[in-house]
Amino acid sequence: MKKALIITVSPNHTYGGTEIYAGKLVNILKSEGWDITEFSYDIRNEKSKIKSSHKIIYPKNKYMHKSLFLTWINFIKIKHELNKFKKNNKFDLIINDTIQGFWWEYVPDNEILIQHNDIDFYNFKFVCQNKFIAWLISFLVKIFSGYKDQIKTHKRIVFYDETNKEYASKFYKKDFHESWCINLSRFTKDQIQKVKYATRNKIVYVGRLDKCQKNINFLIKLSKYLDHQICVYGKGNLERKIRKQKNMKYCGVVDNKEVQNIFSQYLSSILVSNFEGASFSSIESLSSSTQCILRDTFLCAKTLTENNTGLLLDKNISPKKCAKKINSYLSNCNIKEQCNKAKKLAIKYYTDDQFEKKWRQLIRQF
Asked: Which of 95, 114, 154, 224 has its CA 20 to 30 A from that of 336?
């Protein structure tokens, strides 16, 4: 029996994008007859809650600590422990489902990296568009933290799509001929087709409530100029601030089993992040026949709003101008037409059927 190692951030395969992705891979590998071992950072310390039919290895050191410095020290120890584990155990296939790479990391030839961030996140260009300054920042971070661009350390990568692969080839001046393109997915084609058109509220936000990545302060500012209330689902350190906003309604946390039902109650989802990967919540939105309003801060944003499905906003737009564009767009929007467009886009790119077919083809090469 062939042996596979999956490296994950959490053993809870229902929590977020990377975790759900790992859960899908486990099911595919099992159905293909592989013996699976999972090495999990266990970033939320949930191992006591997890029951699994496959072997899960947890590091000796806890990832999270009240002290940021001690968290970092523990993470370094975990990385060294992972290196040792990979070297001492023979696996036919290793799948890296994480987002952190470091210069001391051992990467064997049979290891596949899954792209979970925009290419500009890996190379620090998202911080600054100037290529030299971005390189300088990444160099300093590397010196003081040990960080190394994962796209550089891996020769086998599963990119989101051809656009990301082409951009990476151009930026790194590298031919990724041993790489693949597999879009994220959340639901089957049948599940997407079953979503029915209905009278809908206007705008919803689903995701973490933080100011760094998700840029929730920007969302709060633009809400003051919107003609419509934003319904907010999620948790994070800005929850209290959202509850105080007149034009925002906090609706709690979404159960993953109910996510399609939640999104299908709205015409548009909104995401104003400073950086993203492929945006799992936006894929869930389209799969619920709900169009996306996105800032153009990541490559996949253009695909998620393809053929005027939803609204793509300039990344440098101010909150006031952003709200003005949204108001104008929604006032002239044909709800039924846009819902159908969103559904068609999801079926074109983001079904479980396509995801599983491509991963099975990839796995059978090992």
From this structure: 224
